[in-house]
Amino acid sequence: MLDIILQVSLLLSIGAAAGIMAGLLGIGGGLIIVPVLFALFLSTGQADDSVAMHAAIGTSLATIVLTSISSILAHQKHRAILWQVVVSITPAILVGGLAGALIAGLLPGTALRIGFAIFLLLVAVQMLIGRAPSAHRSLPGLPGLSLVGSVIGAISAIMGIGGGTMSVPFLVWCNVEARIAVATSAAIGLPIALAGTVGFIIAGLGKAGLPPLSIGYVNIPAFVCIVIASVLFAPLGAKFAHRIPHAKLKRIFAVFLLILAIRMIFISD
Questions:
Q1: What is the mean pLDDT of the chain?
Q2: What is the pTM of this model?
Q3: Which of 32, 137, 192, 195 has the most crowded Cβ, counting Cβ within 10 A?
Q4: How far apart are the first and last CA of the chain?
Q5: Which helix (H) or strand (E) covers residue 215, if one does?
């Protein structure tokens, strides 16, 4: 009984942290959820090594669906979302997200863990040392957005994240102000999560060694606990995002990714 209480408390804490990060940084929270769920599934013996990472990613994507909605509603109060960009990029995001989820289902768990760690490290370094965007750079047209969207969707689904780690830097690179980029990224994360969740459910059907009460690679108990807290705390993060200076917000984002990258490298070992 005590173990169950501790696990539920941990999942609620993860959800709260993920919700704040979703609102503050425009990410879905998967960067926190995936490594912690992976460690939890293994340490408690709920999942086999071969599917623990897949279950962590699939569950993370499912939680991001509702976290993104909460974050979107909070950012929309500030009218900070570029809806034209969201609408233009969504079809490619859906295709890329579904494809990425199905590909991830075929990859070994070790490959997913190492790939996740390297991905976070590269994005963190880029954000810390990246040059300021050129004054003439702007958002590309529909073909360019579609290409970017398909790549963001696929990688995000494979990694179990909402896409903010790529969509925020991309939008900032295109001279979109950081707060607007964060808000728009939160909206872009919804179709990524939807497509990725469907893909991971399909890919995980009938797999052995999954945590109890799972549908495909989505674990329902973990999903419920995380979502309850993340939806409640996402508006708080969005509130902070509109009060923190532009430059400081970018540094917070980069340092946050760097810390998690180092953590995942150790987990991979």
A1: 82
A2: 0.79
A3: 192
A4: 31
A5: strand 214-215
